[in-house]
Specification:
Elements (H helix, E strand, L loop, with lengths): L67 E7 L4 H20 L3 E7 L2 H14 L3 E4 L7 H9 L4 E4 L9 E5 L1 H15 L4 E7 L5 H14 L5 E7 L5 H14 L5 E4 L2 H14 L6 E6 L2 H9 L4 E6 L4 H15 L15 E4 L3 E2 L15
Parallel strand pairs: 1-2, 1-3, 3-4, 4-5, 5-11, 6-7, 6-8, 8-9, 9-10
Antiparallel strand pairs: 10-12
Helix pairs in contact: 1-9, 2-3, 4-5, 6-7
Amino acid sequence: MTKRFGKKILALALATSLFAACAGPAATPTAPTQQPTPPPAATPTPPPADTSAPAPADTAGMALEDIDLVVLAPAAAHGWIAATIFFANQKGDELRERGIGNYRVWQSESVAQQAGQLEDAIIQGVSGVVLFPHSDELSIPAQNLVDAGIPLFVFNRNVEADFILRLLGSNRLIGGESARVIAEGIGGSGVVAYLEVPAVGSTSVERITAFKDVMSEYPDIQQVTMTATAISIEEGLRVTTDMLTANPQIDAIFTIDDSLSMGALQAVRESGRDDVRFINGSGGSQVYFNMILESEDIFLMTATFAASMIADTVDLAIEYLHEGRRDFDFDQDFPIPNVIIIPPTIIDRYNVEQFLAPGSPW
């Protein structure tokens, strides 16, 4: 499935015309002497027909006004997915000002509905599709789109299809970079609690595993485990309250989601504790951004897995369609080919204003 989009050079066969040498008949001794008559010039032999399929050529690029781009995403009224739709629509406003021919965002309630939308995109002959899939169950409909000659650009979740590229954030970098900031922030010693949610699968496993790996480099830091059953403010409040009761000293708290950090912050406030110096979330919630901005006593921060990355995916799709095929900077260390990783940004009180997006539902 690995793609390389460098220019391919077509080999052209050049035919060499064949000319027959002139040769006259041998003269007998008794025959009158005469000049031999030359045969007519040979007709050049045409080259054999090339029956092989031509190599795919680079696209020259479409005019922006000719591009018809569709973004497919799960429907959501709130939360991270709703924020991706917000940023996808915001990108559409920008593209319309630039003169794009057609751009729309189609939402779906189910895998079956999104599969139908992929079929509709084929029927309509769109220029390209940015797909935020419900799940990998969309692999066959996604490949059908590619087989119809429509470039596919995948956001976040994976499908087994010959997409041009897939763009996503890194759970591992979120966990590792957050751990480093916390460890250095507390001077390499103290007690750090982390909150995991096994029910959400790889997101929790990857973030917590990387977090613990980096923390293991600091032998003077004691780690305390918290486990929630779901990602919510309520769960963050509940488990953090219990953890604070059981531990008289906590220097910092790390959670796998900003909603959990909001609950953890509430628990610290309600307990009256003043030993907690850092609370680190994950994701990029606008609500949490405002808490970061307003908190003066506890240093709040988060590592982004930003919903705005959907706009980056749209930008790359436009670049491919408008400017022609090109080589993208794929992450060669990632186990899936054609993948671009957006590393997290640590957001705190010093840079949070740069990331505020009024109107975002998350």
